[in-house]
Design brief:
- It is a single chain.
- With 63 residues, this protein is mostly helical.
- It has four helices and no strands.
- Helix 1 packs across helix 3 and helix 2 packs across helix 3.
- The termini are close together.
Amino acid sequence: MQQSLSEAEQRVAKQLAQGLSDKEIALKLELEPKTVRNHVRTVLRKAGAESRTKFALAFHDAV
């Protein structure tokens, strides 16, 4: 992770790493889909990941 994530971004990142869609994350975390999209965009930018898949692979490699 290049930059630290906020608590909300960390919760979204964990779901993102499991391969959930924005809609699934929104339902699971009880957030608005637009909020999830914003968090996903920020997580990917902060992680330096070009895609959701690359983020998930890097996340699992780091764990």
